[in-house]
Write a structure and sequence with these properties.
Blueprint: H1 2-18, E1 48-59, H2 67-80, H3 87-112, E2 117-125, E3 130-135, E4 146-150, E5 153-156
Antiparallel strand pairs: 1-2, 1-4, 2-3, 4-5
């Protein structure tokens, strides 16, 4: 019975620790975690007309659903529970759960492959502001084109 409580506590702890690892942020457009330099351009959604200053190719981020972390955490907790006794067993169970979750998340990320390339379009608006939008395609957009921003996407004007 004591082993069951320890295992349940370790699984709960691993799940609680790993729940902060998941992210639903869009590719490269998370203002708190940019992988590129915005150089004064704002990412805020806006509607208006402007001129394209530059277009840069950026690498999107591979996303994971968290399944690998959960499975890895459970396997690591089970393996850690087989080590030692008493307080040492509890510590090994928790450590095994955390280590297994990290490994499981990395395995899931590697299996997902690379995220697609995205395009950061920097636009000088008519009112003098600078805006930056990230899109999966640029289509026929080129530097110097006049564009209209609608719902965070740039379209030729």
């Amino acid at each position: 019975m004591n082993t069951t409580r320890t295992l349940v506590a370790a699984a709960f702890a691993a799940t609680a620790v790993l729940s902060g690892c998941a992210s639903n942020a869009p590719y490269g457009n998370n203002p708190n975690n940019n992988s590129y330099n915005n150089a004064g351009y704002s990412n805020a959604p806006v509607q208006g007309i402007g001129t394209i200053d530059s277009i840069q190719v950026i690498q999107g981020r591979a996303q994971t659903g968290g399944g690998g972390a959960i499975v890895g955490g459970l396997i690591g907790a089970l393996a850690g529970n087989q080590v030692g006794s008493g307080g040492g067993r509890t510590a090994a169970t928790v450590a095994g759960g955390v280590a297994g979750a990290v490994v499981g998340n990395n395995v899931e990320k590697n299996r997902a492959g690379d995220a697609p390339e995205m395009y950061q379009i920097n636009i000088r608006m008519e009112n003098g502001e600078y805006r930056s939008v990230t899109q999966d395609t640029v289509g026929d957009l080129r530097v110097g084109n006049r564009v209209r921003l609608v719902d965070g996407r740039a379209y030729r004007y």
